[in-house]
Design brief:
The chain is an alpha+beta fold and about 425 residues long. It has helices at about 1-40, 45-60, 85, 140-190, 240-260, 260-275, 365-375, 380-395, and strands at about 65-70, 75-80, 100-105, 115-125, 125-135, 200-205, 215-220, 225-235, 285-290, 295-300, 310, 315, 320, 335-340, 345-350, 405-414. The chain has 2 domains: about 1-165, GAF domain (Beta-Lactamase); about 180-414, Phosphatase 2c, domain 1. It has 8 helices and 16 strands.
């Protein structure tokens, strides 16, 4: 009877609509539950468990594997209906080719061919998760199931990514604060005020490449009018170099006041640095002692960029000394340099970050430019000379960044 058949078809359509409505309601409830869990800051493991449960019991997915990127490697975070030995197969080489939802009928990979399709989750055109699903039956409403799995996978993936970014931000904030603290401590290690008298002037420039640096300078004034001063450059940059610099400063200060000769100071400093670094890092050092009564300057250059002494119109590079400190347990040679400053003189000590500055054309500032500047401006006070030099270097480098720490210690003798 046509009327009875029409009634049956109508009931069938109604039953299908009811199932679709129930499925939609189930999907909405699932999404609400996951959203609430995200708002309550449920752990990543908890979210993965919820994802697995919803797909298995509420959507009826029979096979699933969800992959997330961890430290550059794709890892399966949750799975169902797949044997453990299959999940052990490396899938990293296969994933980059999946940029959109697609079927997997042609795949030969032992794990991938277990599934019917892959759903990649993209963020700024980069994948952050992959969901593999399969095991569909003929009577399954595949389209609606795939739509829901896509939605819930995106929600989970974005939530997990936000957790990761938040943790990264927290770690970065902690690191930034530690670096700020290290920079504050380091600023206390370099002299806030330099001694001066009618017989000499001292002025400095100190510009770490990062918040903290590996350059160091210091001046010690003795009661007899003698001054000892140094400039040093620790290999490397950042916090590691700053920590070594702090250790170096503490040792050097103690030795300068305790030891009688420059040779003894440098020998003991080499031993102390090598004991800490075991030869993996080293320090260049220029250490000098000036006696205002005899106008004599004695120094040791331990592998440092040679300071420039301008006296009577002549440029003298102060090279005498030894190799860098900390490279070997014992210094193979050591020679003390000495100069008698009978006239007004300018002693310019610096780290190589100054001469390594480049301009937009790739040209280095270099020693020749530095010498020309000093010869033209040597009659300025130590402070004015340094101020003018900074402006000159700033103009020279144009838009290029400073390549390294820059430290200068300028001494004028009258």
């Amino acid at each position: 009877m046509p009327e009875l058949q029409e009634i049956k078809r109508t009931l069938t359509r109604i039953d299908k609509l009811e199932r679709e409505v129930n499925l939609k309601q189930l999907q909405i409830n699932s999404l609400l539950a996951i959203t609430q869990a995200i708002n309550e800051n449920v752990s990543a493991e908890g979210l993965f468990n919820m994802y697995n449960s919803f797909l298995r019991w509420e959507i009826g997915i029979r096979k699933m594997a969800l992959f997330f990127l961890e430290s550059g490697h794709w890892e399966c975070k949750t799975a169902l209906g797949v044997e453990e030995q299959l999940l052990a197969h490396d899938i990293n080489a296969e994933l980059p080719r999946f940029r959109s939802t697609r079927g997997l009928e042609s795949s030969e990979h032992p794990l991938i061919r277990e599934f019917d399709l892959v759903i990649p989750v993209m963020h700024k055109d980069e994948p952050i998760a992959y969901a593999f699903i399969g095991g569909f039956l003929d009577e399954d409403d595949v389209y609606n199931k795939v739509q829901f799995v896509t939605t819930i996978t995106n929600v989970i993936a974005v939530a997990i990514e936000n957790k990761r970014l938040f943790k990264t931000q927290l770690r970065q904030e902690v690191l930034n604060r530690e670096v700020e603290l290290a920079a504050e401590i380091q600023r206390t290690l370099v002299p806030a005020r330099l001694p001066s008298s009618e017989k000499y002037q001292l002025s400095s420039i100190y510009k770490p490449h990062f918040a903290v640096g590996g350059d160091y300078y210091d001046v010690v004034e003795f009661s007899d009018g003698t001054i000892a001063f140094c400039i040093a450059d620790i290999t490397g940059k950042g916090v590691a170099a700053a920590l070594l610099m702090a250790n170096f400063q503490a040792n050097l200060r103690a030795l300068v006041t305790r030891c009688q000769t420059l040779e003894e100071i440098v020998q003991e400093m080499n031993t102390a640095v090598h004991r800490v670094t075991q030869g993996d890092r080293f320090i260049t050092l220029f250490l000098a002692r000036y006696d205002v009564r005899t106008r004599t300057l004695h120094y040791i250059n331990a592998g440092h960029t040679p300071p420039l002494l301008l006296c009577k119109g002549e440029i003298i590079r102060l090279k005498n000394g030894c190799t860098v400190l900390g490279w070997m347990p014992e210094l193979p040679f050591l020679e003390i340099g000495g100069v008698c400053l009978t006239d007004e003189a300018l002693l310019f000590t610096y780290t190589d970050g100054l001469t390594d500055v480049c301009n937009d054309a790739g040209e280095e500032f270099g020693e020749e430019n530095l010498i020309a500047f000093l010869q033209e401006n040597h009659r300025l006070s130590a402070k004015d000379l340094n101020t003018k030099l900074l402006g000159y270097v700033e103009a020279f480098r144009e838009k290029q960044p400073f390549p390294d720490d820059i430290t200068v210690l300028t001494c004028k003798v009258f």
